[in-house]
Amino acid sequence: MGYFSVRAVRRDGDPAADVGVMIEYGSFHGCDEKRTDGDGWAEFHNSGDKPGRIWVHGHDMGSHSLSDGKNYSFTI
User: Fold this and answer.
1) Where residue 18 sits, what CATH number does that domain have?
2) CA 45 to CA 53: how far, in whole Å?
3) Considering the entire predicted model, what is its pTM?
4) I want to staple 21 with a disulfide (CB 3.0 to 4.6 A). Which of 4, 42, 64, 67 is the partner?
């Protein structure tokens, strides 16, 4: 099992530390929730090439591929 990462960035371009990020892996696979580190990153286990829904700071960022090595950045 690999990993993918999500980064939260503030509108001024600074990393958003201690922000909640949730991944919905699908109806039968549950979800995972973490908080970003000081550089705005949160790392999650992937579930193969299946898509999942990404939530950042309570906002639905849509469905994305959660395959190994993917990195996503969202402005909040």
Assistant:
1) 2.60.40.1120
2) 14
3) 0.90
4) 42
